[in-house]
């Protein structure tokens, strides 16, 4: 009898823990679903966006800057891209809906711009101007972009 009572207590404890764990998982899943559906970000969420801005006219150097930028970010930060703390966006700033970027980031030509967001609000940005000078030196280009992105991720 005493052994059955102990087994029942153990069973009840396991069942209770299992239900609590299931409830926590369900609650977390609902929270994530609600954030995705509403676009809400958890308090203090930080993100870095790497924008490559181009125009309708694309020379071979401009295309190379885009390719090297994508390579530096995609190969250098796969985890950050996957978890959403880093994003790469390619934007034609001559399209009407994107013209505001010219003023937002003082663009005068094709550019790679890093933007820091906290809770969806921009806190700082940097135009990586050395990309133009480093297009002939791929390793230096990749290292430069990765160093700058790493700095933004560390300080974002």
List keywords for this structure.
single chain, 2 domains, 53% helix, Glutaredoxin, 4-stranded mixed sheet, alpha+beta, 156 residues
Quick structural summary:
The protein has 156 residues and is an alpha+beta fold. It has helices at 2-38, 60-76, 78-83, 100-104, 138-155; strands at residues 46-54, 86-92, 111-118, 121-127.
CATH architecture of the largest domain: 3-Layer(aba) Sandwich
Report the principal-axis shape: elongated
Share of helical residues:
40-55%
Number of E strands:
4
Description of the structure:
This protein has 156 residues and is α+β, with helices and mostly antiparallel strands. The chain has 2 domains: 1-40; 46-155, Glutaredoxin (3-Layer(aba) Sandwich). Helix content is 53%, strand content 20%. It is built from 5 helices and 4 strands. The chain has helices at residues 2-38, 60-76, 78-83, 100-104, 138-155, and strands at 46-54, 86-92, 111-118, 121-127. It has a 4-stranded mixed β-sheet. Helix 2 (60-76) packs across helix 5. The longest helix has 37 residues, at 2-38. 16% of the residues are buried.
């Amino acid at each position: 009898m005493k052994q059955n009572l102990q087994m029942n207590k153990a069973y009840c404890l396991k069942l209770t823990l299992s239900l609590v764990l299931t409830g926590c998982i369900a609650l977390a899943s609902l929270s994530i679903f609600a954030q995705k559906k509403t676009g809400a970000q958890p308090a203090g969420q930080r993100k870095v966006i790497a924008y490559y801005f181009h125009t309708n006219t694309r020379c071979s150097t401009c295309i190379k800057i885009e390719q090297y930028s994508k390579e530096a970010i995609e190969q250098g930060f796969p985890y950050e891209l996957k978890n959403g703390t880093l994003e790469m966006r390619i934007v034609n700033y001559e399209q009407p809906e994107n013209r505001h970027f010219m003023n937002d980031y003082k663009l005068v030509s094709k550019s790679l711009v890093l933007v820091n967001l906290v809770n969806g609000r921009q806190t700082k940005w940097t135009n990586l101007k050395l990309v133009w000078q480093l297009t002939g030196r791929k390793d230096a280009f990749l290292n430069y972009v990765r160093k700058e992105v790493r700095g933004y991720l560390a300080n974002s």
